[in-house]
Amino acid sequence: MSPHRERFLEHLRAERGCSEHTIRGYAYTIAQLHTFLTERDLGLGDMRRAELRALLFTLGRNRAASTVARHIAALRTYYRWLVREGVVESSPADDLEPPRVPRSLPRVLTPPEADDLYEATDASTLSGLRDKAIAELLYGAGLRVGELELLDREDLDLQQGMVWVRHGKGNKERRVPMGRLAAKALQDWLSVSLGANGPVFTNARGGRLSARSIRRMLTTLGDRADVRGLHPHALRHSYATHLLDAGADLRAIQELLGHASLSTTQRYTHVSTDSLLAVYRRSHPHAHDDDK
C-alpha cells in the first residue's frame, strides 16, 4: 500500500468523518490509480488529464454513470489532499467532468408492505428473530445500514424506546426513538442471543453482522414478502415518507435522519398526492372540501 494512500484513508476517517462504506469505495479507486501508475512507471505528479481519462475509461467500462461519478469524486478528493500535503503541485483531476446521473424516485414501501415484511420473518429460528429486529429497526428508526451494523447493546434503551446512534455520518451522534414493534422485536432477539455486551446483531460465529450480510438478508426477506427491490435505504426512505405523510414536520424528520442539510431530507421523502391535497384543504383559506 502506498504511504500516501494509507494517510489519505486515515484523513477520510479521522478528519472528514466519512463512513466505512465511503472509505472502502475511495480505497478501491485509489488502489486502481496506484496500479495504473506502477504499470506505466509514472509518479503521482506525472498524471495529466489524458491519463486520468484513460484510467476512468477502464474503471467505468460497462458501469453505471453513478459509479463513474464516484470514481471521479474519489480522484478529485485524493489529488486535492495531495496538493494540500505538498506531494504534488497541482491537481489534474479538478477539470474532470462527472457524467450526469439520472435521479429516480426512491423505492418507498406502502404501510401494508411494511407490515407484510414484518410478518414474513420466521420467528421460530434465531436468524429469523434477528432478521425481524433488523427490518423493524431500519424501518422503525430510519437508521442507515452502517449505523445499524455498528450498534452495540449499550446503545439501546428498550424501556424508553430510544436508540443512541454513535457512528452517524460525519461522526455525528444522535438519539432517535424506535417504534413499539421495533422494541418488541429487539427484546425477542436479545433474549436469545449470546452475550450481555458487544454488537447488537451478530452472525452465526458470534461476530458483528456486516452491512453486506444485512443487505443480502433484506433482499431474501423482500422476495419472501413479495416486496421487490428491498434494500436498507428503501426502508429509510419509507420511514421518512410515512412520517411526512402523517403530518410530521420536515425539520423534525431532518433531525431524526441525521441530515446536515434540509435539501437532503427532501430527497429522502416522497409526498403522496392525497397528503398534498389534505395539507392544502386544511391550510389554505380559500380551500373547500369539494375542491377537485
Give a quick summary of the entry.
Helix content is 54%, strand content 3%. The chain has 292 residues and is mainly α.
What does the model show?
Helices cover 54% and strands 3% of the residues. Strands 1-2-3 form a 3-stranded antiparallel beta sheet. The chain is built from 13 helices and 3 strands. The protein folds into 2 domains: 3-84, DNA polymerase, domain 1; 111-277, hpI Integrase, Chain A (Orthogonal Bundle). It is mainly alpha-helical. It has helices at residues 3-14, 20-39, 49-59, 65-84, 111-119, 126-141, 145-149, 180-190, 211-224, 232-245, 250-257, 262-267, 273-283, and strands at 156-157, 162-165, 174-177. The mean pLDDT is 86.
User: The biggest beta sheet, please?
Assistant: 3 strands, antiparallel
Number of helices: 13
The residue-averaged pLDDT reads: 86
Strand count:
3
Q: Which percent bin holds the helix content?
A: 40-55%
What is the CATH topology classification name of the largest domain? hpI Integrase, Chain A
Instruction: Note the overall shape.
Output: globular
The N- to C-terminal Cα distance equals 64 Å
The class by helix and strand makeup works out as: mainly alpha
C-alpha-based Rg, rounded: 23 Å
| SSE order | HHHHHHHEEEHHHHHH
Architecture per CATH nomenclature, i.e. the level-2 architecture of the largest domain? Orthogonal Bundle
Hey, roughly how much beta strand do the residues contain?
under 5%
What is the CATH C-level name of the largest domain? Mainly Alpha
